[in-house]
Amino acid sequence: MLRRAASGQIPDPCACPFRDSDIAPMSHSLTLDRPLRGALRLPTLPLLTLLTLLSGGSLLLACSSGSIALGAGELWLAASGHGSQLADTLLSLRLERALTAWVTGGSLALAGVLMQSLLRNPLADPYVMGVSGGASVGALLALWLGLALWQVDSAAVAGALTLSALLFLLARRDFARSSGTVLLLLTGVLLSAACGALISLLLTIAPDAQLRGMVFWLVGDIAGTPLRPWPWLALLPAALLAWWQAPAINLLALHGDHALTLGVPVAMLRRLLLILAAILTASAVSQGGSIGFVGLMVPHACRLLCGPDLRRLIPAAVLSGAALLVLADTLARTVVAPMQLPVGVLTALLGVPVLFWQLQRTRRRLA
Amino acid sequence: MLHCDQLTLRQGRRTLLQPLTWQVRAGECWWIAGRNGCGKSTLLATLAALRRADGGHIRLCGQPLPQLTPRQRAQRLALLPQASHDAFDYAVQDAVAAARFAWPDSGDTPQRVAAALDAFDLGRLASRPLQALSGGERQRVALASVMAQDAPLILLDEPSNSLDLAHQAALQQQIGRWRAEGKAVLLVSHDLQLAPACASHALLLDEHGAHRQYPLAELNAEHLAAVLGYPLTRLHHAGHPCFLPGHPS
After folding, report:
1. Domains observed in chain B
2. With the C-alpha atoms ordered A267, B66, B105, B101, is the resulting torsion angle positive or negative?
3. pLDDT digits (tens, 9 = 90+) for A49-75
4. Domains defined for chain A, CATH in brackets
5. Where in the cell is the protein located (chain A) (predicted)?
6. ipTM of the predicted structure?
7. Which of A12, A100, A321, B221 could pair with B234 as two cysteines, CB 3.0-4.6 Å apart?
8. Predicted structure pTM score
């Protein structure tokens, strides 16, 4: 091309026809194995293997620890159906609770990653934006009315989706401006405050008999939540869809509106992210009440660990969010046994110092 | 390559651009000049389909702009925006590689990214995080991204912002190479030395939406001074025209 130009002929790039059939679907597996530029600098495969082992290990630990500890041998026997009745019962109880924690933690972490990329703000999470507040209002309303468990769940989902839709309608035009992120974040904070007021109102007018359940539900607790299929049906497709779209979400996080000029269907992608985050939040809130902090801290920690590239960050956040909540829940039910702490208290108490430490490291690195 | 037919831009009631009929061909570089707020960036945003035209039609490579998918547009047109803010700490080479999004991965991504990094002297900074860069370095990353995107029409909004002298010269050379490759460049700039050295044509916009088009050879100091609202002198320096503020003494 250069030679032709040198001879005075200017080629017309428009003349070369583009055919859409030439365009392969986004392929990112090819470049996935480059060395990482996060703090650990582990290649992708070992990192994800490590995190998979960690989150599997957290399940094992959760199954073995408790008022009656189960050794590896007993676990194996119970799992293969030859254990004692006590071990069988303990295993199924603990595994059920651990799996609930796993899917809740994974959902919260993924919702956080998606909202942060959507808003291009590392401080955004479902709690800041009021999405979980919407879910809480819905659920508390159902609890106050004395509805059945499945109705409480549905009310939580309805609340989260309503809040997301409201957020989307109010701030629809903010997506189109580069300055819109601030307005959108403020809208979220306002909606969150409104939900907070509604929650206080519901707690004030609730009869004493329901008050304890409502408060405990608000704090965030996994105890007593039965293992249900639909949070898994929300998390797995959402994670796969987000991972498949990771190159596009990367560009949205990098360039905001201008990602459009790089070929990203920005409006559609933003809608997708908002809906996915709402469903994941509703699922997590209906499982474990309001467990704050996971959606904020896990993406942060993972970003420091493996860099901001969502092709790595999405699976890493799901796996470590899951592991974190399983471990925190295990700790919550063993640390002052026989009393059980709400897991939300532990995630905050454990998470804050870790986050501070990592922020301090980042400050030093940037200085 | 780019054809505007009676293109009109408005902001509220104010007319930013009176109907403009304009043709940009391969190998041309248009200097778009005008005072602050006269609608230069809005024009680029409209051409990049970031906002809708308030009247008229735009055809890019023969096809109406609104009919192209984002991916098709990105294969034909690249935009260097005026400012960028980085919320996340992507590494320089990852940010540049991400600009290849619109193209199917044919295995040449690493070479193209390396070439773009080299062209803007970013080889040393390849694995540095964006947030650790200076303003000029960040601007060079944005330019390298535009280069990696490899579109035939390149829109540059103030590309020489915060670049040091040597990198401004490198930018000028790169624009020359793009033109030789048959790409077209639209250059919004207040740089009275760099822009005339790069451009083949000029589009002058005034504050009331009026506009004039000139081949650069015919652009004299009076034309430009009338639009910019400041007296200018046209000189010839290092084989290119350039403009200096003030009357000839």
Report:
1. 2-89+152-245 (3.40.50.300)
2. negative
3. 999 999 999 999 998 887 777 777 777
4. 110-366 (1.10.3470.10)
5. Cell membrane
6. 0.90
7. B221
8. 0.85
